[in-house]
Amino acid sequence: MKMARAAAIILSLLTVLGCSKESDTLKIGAVLSVTGPASFLGEPEKNTLLMLQDELNAKGGVDGRKVQVIVYDDESDVNKCVMAAKKLIEQDHVAVVIGPSISGNTLAIAKFFAPAKIPLVSCAAAEKIVKPVDPWVFNTPQLDRHAVGKILADAKKKGYTKLAIITVSDGYGQAGRAVLQDLIPAQGLTLVADEVFGPKDTDMSAQLTKIKGAGPDAIICWGTNPGPAVVARNRTQLGITTPLYMSHGVASKKFMELAGDAAEGLILPAGRLVAVNQVPDSHPQKALLVKYVADYTKKYGTPPSSFGGYAYDAFALVLEAVKLGKSTKSEDIRANLEKVTSMAGTSGIYTMTPENHNGLSEDAFLMVVIEKGDWKVVD
Predict the structure, then answer these.
(1) Which of 33, 44, 61, 308 is the 20 to 30 Å CA partner of 54?
(2) How are beta strands 366-371 and 267-270 bridged, if at all?
(3) Handedness of CA 213, 215, 218, 222 (dihedral sign)
(4) What kind of fold does domain 26-142+287-363 have according to CATH?
């Protein structure tokens, strides 16, 4: 009897000690496409989170707590993403989750977070992630609507009135397509062709031939690698000289590698991270961008991408919420994410509200042209 009582007391003490130890660590979960077709998104996101974790812990952590980032690779697969998200929620008991990298994967797991009362800060850009607002779901990339707005403003400035679109049939592509279908006529422009390609398609010549026949003033391609690079190469092969816009989904040097010479002259909206040296020193993002590029390049031997920047901003938003609420409880992080105001990130200046879980505006974008294998700001 005494031994049983002693065992119970020891178990109780161990439980208390375990809870105390856990409360001293802020657990941040992350589900990212580190491998698979979307690895150009997820690998820099993982690298960024682990770098920030180490930097922060070397300085003593946040609010007196060490940070532990638990990263799972969904391999760019929606089913593996679902399993990883459930594991973070049910087994790892994280306070917040960053990711996924892909819009479709984000939309597949978003429903899990309100019942679990854990906030999700996605690194994917589809407008459907945050519209309509789910109190527990946020995202960090500039939204499709912001990108389309910048593209259409540039097109109107150049006198283009007839536009064609070619979009990928995944979550990101179709979210962008919906916004394009909405805003093109709303801006007084005419949509003369609307073509779609699959994520694994290796030739879009048929779609581009149809577009050429419609006689547009400009073409807008919406997708992430590798599809847009195929579109760029096929356009060159077909001798099409109609101006081609890309979405922010290809704002990385990886796109230039895939497209080769066909990338020359293409125009797209991108965050200031791709053109740090062209950002004025007085801009509120400049010092942060310079440091991120230097730190990431030193650690990994290559500059960061806009996609790594999305994870940087998610991590920074979580830390800001913890500092605002002086709490690492999931409910408090969620509530204080909505109170973040004028926080400079790599992707823009964030001001969150209960009605706005993205926090960016069209001003977060620059229009850039690809010139001699690099980005040149054109506005």
Answers:
(1) 33
(2) antiparallel
(3) negative
(4) Rossmann fold (3.40.50)
- Structural domain boundaries in the chain: 26-142+287-363, 156-270
Task: For residue 163, count CB atoms less than 10 angstroms from its CB and return exposed for 0-12, middle for 13-18, buried for 19 or more.
Answer: buried
Look at residue 23 in the predicted model and tell me its pLDDT.
53
Token pair listed for 114: 């309100």
Separation between Cα atoms, residue 123 and residue 142, nearest integer Å: 10
Cβ pair 184, 178 in contact under 8 A: no
Which DSSP symbol is given to 76? Answer: T
Angle at CA of residue 75, ends 370 and 305, nearest 5°: 25
Q: Where are the alpha helices (DSSP H) in 251-305?
A: 253-259, 286-300
Q: Using CB atoms within 10 A of its CB, is residue 231 exposed (0-12), middle (13-18) or buried (19+)? A: buried
- What span, in angstroms and rounded, lies between the C-alpha atoms of 303 and 295? 9
Residue 174 contacts residue 194 (beta carbons within 8 Å) = no
- Other CB atoms within 10 A of residue 186 CB: 9
Beta-sheet strands, E only, within the chain: 25-32, 66-73, 96-98, 120-122, 137-139, 162-168, 190-197, 218-222, 244-246, 267-270, 343-344, 349-350, 366-371, 374-377
CB atoms within 10 A of CB 183: 17
What are 100-126's pLDDT values in tens digits? Answer: 999 999 999 999 999 999 999 999 988
Q: What is the CA radius of gyration of the chain?
A: 22
Q: Which tens digits make up the pLDDT trace of 270-318? A: 999 999 999 999 999 999 999 999 999 999 999 999 999 999 999 999 9
Q: How far apart (Å, rounded) are the C-alpha atoms in residues 282 and 280?
A: 5
Q: Are 249 and 258 in contact (CB under 8 A)?
A: no
CA 183 – CA 143 distance, rounded (Å): 14
Task: Please say whether the beta carbons of 121 and 337 come within 8 A.
Answer: yes
pLDDT tens per residue, range 189-231:
999 999 999 999 999 999 999 999 999 999 999 998 899 999 9
Q: Enumerate the H helices of 158-285 as residue ranges.
A: 171-186, 205-214, 227-237, 253-259
